[in-house]
Amino acid sequence: MDIDDNQKNQIINDNKNNQNNIYYSNDTTGKLLFMRHGETFFNLDPDKQGRVTNSKYVDCHLDEKGIEQSKSLQNILNKLSIEKIYISPMYRVFQTISYALENHPNLKNITVVVHPMVNEVTSCVQDYLLNIKQTKQEFNMNSKVKFDWSLFDEYVKGIKWDENFYYFDNFNCFENNKKDEMYKKLKELYDLGDFTSFKEGLAELAKIRYAQKKRFESLKHLQFRFNKFMEFIKENHKNSLDKTDDKILVITHDSLIKCATDRTPYETDDIQKYHQNSYSAKNCDIISIKF
User: Fold this and answer.
1) What is the domain count for the chain?
2) Would residue 16 count as lying in a domain?
3) What are the DSSP calls for 219-253, one per residue?
4) Which of 37, 217, 267, 289 could form a disulfide with 122 if both were Cys (CB 3.0 to 4.6 A apart)?
5) CB-based contact 165:198 (threshold 8 Å)
């Protein structure tokens, strides 16, 4: 459901009594800024079923407009003093921040931290990683931006799933034995380097989800992840939260931004309410949070 700008502002104003005050889009006055990645081909596909299950969209890349959107963010980010940047491990997010920061005047002093808690809610093919090892290598070698994988790698050490399947840890609609079964099949394809079959296997998972009309990861679990991330921010930046001149930037996905702007849908896990009452971020939108 599309929401126009007046409705967006009303949603934000209605939520000013929440634990955080939320400001929309180009307002960067808050300490913590959430930004959605640039546009992808997945975002444009009008075929609902095909869009959520088509294997070509697994961990998809920015389209030409998404690249231009990301570059246009330089007009905003180049004027900001950045304390820290956290990003989702999805490929489209790496692209977005690489383009957005490539001409930042303080780029040599900025490190972008890959954070496992700000991935998209797992519900369709776009929400799966394809080859995290290749992503690491590609962006570590070819991007002007410095990436820090330590938080992601530490998280992976603490779970039973391989790093490319770490999001299995968020699948709370399956028993562990079912997750084990799915993981084993996909891991065999991944280890063989058969990424065509691997993508098809991920698409089959999405078809299961689509047929059952539910998410692998519930909205409540997504809210839990978001809360854990906010605890991390408050603990790791507690000495600077009142210093709003230096920004903490989070490059993430629409669902995480929904968590920041309206908690109610996640508390009830009501999908209809989620779409009707939540702020829906456009690609490269920015919202601002003051603590």
Assistant:
1) 1
2) no
3) HHHHHHHHHHHHHHHHHHTTTTTT-TTEEEEEEE-
4) 217
5) no
Provide the percentage of residues in the chain whose pLDDT is more than 70: 85
In one letter, which amino acid is 30?
G
The 10 Å Cβ neighbour count of residue 125 is 27
**Does residue 1 form part of some domain?**
no
Tell me if 178 is assigned to some domain: yes
Q: For 268, what's the count of Cα atoms within 13 Å in the CB-facing half-sphere?
A: 11
Which three-class secondary structure state does DSSP give residue 97?
Answer: helix
The answer, yes or no, to whether residue 147 has pLDDT greater than 70, is yes
> Where in the sequence is the domain holding 66, given as residue range(s)?
22-290
Which DSSP string corresponds to 205-223? HHHHHHHHTS-SS-HHHHH
Q: Which residue has the higher pLDDT, 271 or 44?
A: 44
pLDDT number for residue 25: 46
6 in any annotated domain: no
Which residue type occupies 61? H
Q: Which three-class secondary structure state does DSSP give residue 108?
A: helix
